[in-house]
Amino acid sequence: MVMARVMRLAVQEIRGTFTIPPVTEPAESGQSGSSSEPGFAEAQFHVLYALSQAGSLPVGEIAERCHVAVPTISRMLKHLEENGLIERHVDRTNRRFVRVVLTEAGRAAESQLEQRAKAALHHVLSPLTD
Asked: Taking CA 97 as the corner, what is the angle to CA 20 and CA 75, rounded to the nearest 5 degrees?
């Protein structure tokens, strides 16, 4: 419980400093577009991290690792691809699968995010005593 709160504080600390805006859904029935789900931007960060650790993943496995549905991952990947952070490639061994990899810009963005997350965590935890 305490760790979850600490992580939320750290995420709040870095929110808005990363350059990827959250994906928005098209307006429906006169409503303005809104984030497709709570924490969508954080989920994009999770995608970048998962890809940085694995190198290349099929879309379905990214969805599993991020604990979201495949259609949600597809929207996130589209947004990340539009921002030049990932590339999708058809798997040579099984053309039914699409594998996703980070671009150089994606690796740089993930690295920058990791540094900011560490600094934010340090800032949140620093007032605590041993």
From this structure: 25
The set of residues, in sequence order, having a beta carbon less than 8 Å from that of 98 and lying 6+ positions away, is: 58, 59, 88, 89, 90, 91
Give dist(CA 82, CA 19) in Å, integer.
Answer: 13
pTM for the structure as a whole: 0.66
Give the span between the Cα atoms of 99 and 115, in whole angstroms: 26
pLDDT in tens, 73-91: 999 999 999 989 999 999 8
Residue 87 is inside which H or E element, if any?
strand 86-90
Which residues, including other chains, have CB under 8 Å from residue 88's CB and lie 6 or more apart?
59, 77, 81, 98, 99, 100
- The residue behind tokens 């098209």 is 26
Grouping H, G, I as helix, E, B as strand and the rest as coil, residue 44 is: helix
